Amino acid sequence: MSERTTWNNNYIFLMAMIGSAVGLGNIWRFPYIYYTNGHGTFLIPYIIAILVLGLPFIFLESSLGLKFKESLINTFQKVGDKLQIIGWLIIITVFLITTYYICIVGWDLIYFFLSFTKAWGANPATYFTTNVVQSSNVLHFVPLVGISILVIWILIWFICHKDLNDGVGKAVNILVPLMFVIMIGIVIYSLTMPGASIGIKEFFTIDWNALGNLNIWLAAFGQIIFSLSLGMGIILTYSSYLPEKTNLTKNAVMTIFANCGFEVVNAIGVFSILGFMVLTSGIPFNQLIIEGTGLAFIAFPEVFNVMGPVSYILGPIFFLCILIAGITSLISMLELISSSIGDKFKLSRKKVTTILCIIGFLVSMIYATSFGSYLLGIVDSMLNNVILLLIIIIECIIFGYIYSMDKLMEILNENTLFKVGNWWKYCIKYITPIILIILWISGVLSFIFTAPTKELIIRGALILILIIGPILAYLITKKLDIKKSKSNNLN
Ligand code: PHE
């Protein structure tokens, strides 16, 4: 067997981990989750989610990566043959995320160009729905979105088809630090804007009663899963390229600091800017419309409209920052999928990346239609609130009960001063799954009772894909394995 590639150095690995974690989830998702879930109150479940879910899970995935030094599917196969089905469930889920995630990055690319002239005009909300995503009841293709998605796919292909250090390594080495510099610059500027203090006051407002609301907890745990790319095998795959003697716990803590620090600091900037909006528009803080896509592509253009000449610099830089964050996350999703499929089907990195990018491009064209943004909202909420939570619960059961965590604990404690104790096992075995099961049930129930019938059909179709897809993939690869072992025996 050929030697597995390793990262050129630990710094590059860290940049890749942070690049994967910091993404649209931090810039586009976190501020509105924070805004709609109790402002400062949200910080409490958020910190708890980091401690009982974020940290333990990064420990789990990175020790699995270092122990097996294999891609996700092969790792699951080594733990138990049938568990590969779960591996495929994860791969297909991440593939589905990739295909809509790239669409949002595509929208961002369009806004990057628009921002040089503020081409969205006086009414950014209408511009977004009628000119960019072109939502309508009649199905039609939206060429502009299609082209910008294609451009991003080509970029991703260009980075990922090369060897690990030449492609992913070089890209993250440049892009991740650049992204931090841009974000810090924007936040510092936003703090100096008139009205910033209104936003900051809102940011730190805590309403203790709101803590009893299960939705806030669901949102916090969901955010940590998405933002840290937990349970998706990405941390496992990236860690499988590490050399034997690596301090995993230090890397885990640094990744969390960078990712969560990024999103909290960024949100302080966003809230300051919203404070400025309150001052200029007179609309009360709690009535600003910033949910979902609205924040990046509607609220920000509105702010740039009233900001004066500096917005011609700030605008493009802001959209560039989202673009970089999105690309470094997309790279990690593709790395996970291509390493697993490449290993299983014995395909070269170049070949598997090319095939995946073509298929991915074709699937993502669903979002380059007039139904795109509607569909995207449903798929996003379904995968994040239902499927990803379920995957993490299953992983807690597999690694907490079927596989011995002691073997992993040894690896974690080998090269570090900060020893992981039994609390880690308690988290994976009891605390995390129990909390997640409660949240999952409440989330699923609210979905069933509140979703309109049309949405239920789309959700049902997604569930079907996620049940049939992994079983089919397992059976196909099983056949391949049998063929391979037969021909080996003949030789
Ligand atoms: N963590 C990324 C973000 O915050 C999203 C992501 C999800 C990355 C799944 C990889 C896999 O945007």
Coarse morphology: globular
Number of helices, counting only DSSP H or I runs of 4 residues or more:
19
- End-to-end separation in angstroms reads 17 Å
Question: How many strands, what sense, and barrel or not for the largest sheet?
Answer: none
Question: Mean pLDDT, nearest integer?
Answer: 92
Return Rg in Å. Answer: 22 Å
Spell the H/E element sequence. HHHHHHHHHHHHHHHHHHH
**Could you say which small molecules are bound to this protein?**
phenylalanine
Residue share in helices?
over 70%
Poorly predicted runs: none
What class do helices, strands and sheet pairing give?
mainly alpha
Number of strands: 0
Report the β-strand fraction as a percent range. under 5%
Plain-language structure description:
The structure is a single chain. The chain contains 19 helices and no strands. Helix 14 (311-345) crosses helix 15 (349-364). Helix content is 77%, strand content 0%. The chain is an all-alpha fold.
List the keywords.
mainly alpha, 77% helix, binds phenylalanine
Structure in a nutshell:
This protein is mainly α.
Write the layout of secondary structure elements.
Elements: H1 10-21, H2 24-36, H3 43-68, H4 72-79, H5 84-115, H6 124-132, H7 143-160, H8 165-191, H9 196-203, H10 214-227, H11 234-239, H12 248-281, H13 294-307, H14 311-345, H15 349-364, H16 372-402, H17 405-414, H18 422-450, H19 453-490
The structure holds phenylalanine.
